[in-house]
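User: I'm curious what two different proteins look like when written out as structure tokens. Can you demonstrate?

Assistant: Sure. I'll show them one after the other, since each token string lines up with its own sequence. Here's the first protein:
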Amino acid sequence: MKMRTNIDKLVRISVMGEVVSPIVSKSAYKISSDGRPVVLPGVGGITYNVRVGDPASGWEADHVEPGVSVENK
């Protein structure tokens, strides 16, 4: 029995750019529900522990971009 795949439907992408440094918004501090100031990581850099396909919620971050954030200059 031959295994069926969707390899012919997969998107092939090449990346040209530079890894972008993480950014911090103008108002870096957010106030937690218990009144503590916190700084959450934002966009940029290399995300080591979040991959495409991981759950979208539950992370301590402003928002997460799995993998590597690149910029084409």
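Here's a second, unrelated protein for contrast:
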Amino acid sequence: MSILLTRFSFYLSIAGMVFAGFLVLRLSAQDPVPPPPHSPPSNPFASSVAAAGIVEAQGENIALGVPVAGLVTAVHVKVWDKVESGQPLLQLDDRELKASLIGQRARVLVAEATEARLRGMLARLEKVSDNRAITREELETRRSDVQVAAAELASARATVEQTETLLTRLTVRAPRAATVLQVNTRPGEFVTPGSTRSPLVLGDLTYFQIRADIDEQVAPRVRPGMKAVGYLKGDTQKPISLEFVRVDPFIIPKVSLTGGSIERVDTRVLQVIYRCPFSPTNTLYVGQQLDLYLEE
């Protein structure tokens, strides 16, 4: 009996070791790498410089700011609206300034009445021909009083103009003709100057501007006027021909990231600007990324 039990334990340990080895091999096996969802773009040139590009509006995007911190009372536009230069876009709370303006205009009326009264008195005194009726010193005092009243009137009117100018600043207007790309605020929200998120973003979509980032290691190979072809992320079968605009003469730290796992974020880049006409066949959107090839 003991011999059978010993043999059973031996065979059982052997089976356990075999199962453990199989389990280790199973767990250590790597799953096959799945194919990429989209084939990478093909380089159309025999010799080229690769770059990562981002789509902008013509003349770059306009991130509007506000002159003062305040409560948003009205937003006059929505995304895709076309606006003209000077068109109201955003209204900040102006009730406090309007209340101050009422008192300031009343003070202008008081100053006008005072100045008119003193000027009338002076005119009557200047018509008196008898020097015994009024002395020269009193006449000069009356003239000084008129000048002081005129200065107070000018000051009151300047205060009104200043307040009206401040009221005008609370209406944010379009700096130029463009299309509304983003609306990041709503009535009732509080906005501040210098915020990292602009309340409104505008852009001219007559042309799309492509800003290509080229690593400074290959920047010496870049020449003005280089022909370029771009491919949208996820659509590598439709090349987009680009027109050269300029080379920015200033190398900057890289800020537009593609999200690649091996991408260096401390790279400095030379920026080359291209443009692409707006077309329904080119499904480009501001902020979209492209893979670019610049022909050497």
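A detail about the second structure: The mean pLDDT is 84.
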